[in-house]
Amino acid sequence: MAGPNRGMPGTHRYTQADLRPTLRDPRCSPQFPLACYWPVYLGNFWCDVYPQHATRIQEYFGSKGLLVRMVFARNEYLDPYFKEQKRCKCYDFLVYFVSQQDAQDAVYFCNRDMYYGHRLNVLPGRTPVFFDTSVSVRHSLLQPAKLEMAEQAFERHIYHICKARMQCIVKQSRSDLLVEYFSNEDRTLALQYCKIATPEQISMDQPKQRFLESDVQKELMAQIQGNPKFMDMLPPGNILQALMNGFLPQSTMSWKTLSMVPHIKKIRVFGPGKRRRQLRQQIYEKTQDIFGVEVDKQFPISEEVRQSKMQRKLELLHQKRTAPYGRNNF
Asked: CDD domains recorded for this chain (predicted)?
């Protein structure tokens, strides 16, 4: 998708006419109620009070100078992944803007932006964006019930152990994390050191969006028909007024400084020694067979842990040298 052509979105002044656009997306049926609005797929959006999700999304994009009209959330009873999202409080939505340019700006300025410690996925809502299979991996957690990892927790873990960089990570089930790395070198590093998930190839037609508008259109229409206020959705008054005056709304923007990524004390394979070796062997074999990469079987430790162990070793050595000879000091 093309980048912005008007500078930072905050320089735009919205009008009443903007709130009811008439230019239809030619990809949509003329009868489709949202044909004049432009959606983006918003993924990995952290929200601890789910009923407030629309307001929080409007506040976030408003801070970028972008006016959000409608926010579509899937029906929790129809979405098999909703239970997992509720557990980690990271959800995905379709977010509707009043112009194609706004949707392009949202993708350009907000994709991979940090929101309460979680990196957002902001992608087109009607057109699939596919993974680059040459630098991508499907990581399947061996013990998802024991390692309940949100996208950002996994990304931090991989960067911590080997400094491999990601440019997209999407969790599409409780166990599967789809990752596009920055380069083949980054992917190789991750494959060499990741010892909590088995790797698989990602198919060439795998979109980064968990769903597009076309995938949920029946569900979307049911929501529009069941809730007439859906089409009248607007940002809170203070946000709307600021954007219509050409200013960025006042906000604490606490999402920039606070991290809500849960800390996982131990990230490893659990179980008796023999079982752990069997599980790790699965990783070694798949990594070699599918990607031709040999896993580093040494377990990397952080510099802090290394220094701590060295300090402890020196202390024990000092105690041994200075301790009285024998068990009793006569």
From this structure: RRM_SF
Q: Please check whether residue 241 is in contact with residue 250, taking contact to mean a CB–CB distance below 8 angstroms.
A: no
Q: What is the total count of domains within the chain?
A: 2
What residue numbers bound the domain in which 247 lies?
16-129+211-256
Cβ burial, residue 231 (10 Å; 0-12/13-18/19+): middle
The CB density around residue 245, as the number of other CB atoms within 10 Å, is 10
- Cα distance between residue 194 and residue 210, in whole Å: 24
Residue 121 has pLDDT above 90, yes or no: yes
Cα–Cα dist 180/93, whole Å: 21
CB-CB contact of 95 with 57 (8 Å):
yes
Residue 200 and residue 101 in one domain: no
CATH number of the domain bearing residue 177: 3.30.70
- The pTM for the full model equals 0.87
User: Could you tell me the two tokens for 164?
Assistant: 């491999």
Residues 167 and 61 in one domain: no
Q: What is the pLDDT of residues 301-328, one digit of tens each?
A: 555 555 666 777 787 787 777 776 554 4
Residues 181 and 275 in one domain: yes
Strands of the chain (E only): list them: 38-46, 68-72, 90-97, 114-115, 118-119, 121-124, 136-141, 166-171, 176-181, 197-200
191 and 83 belong to one structural domain? no
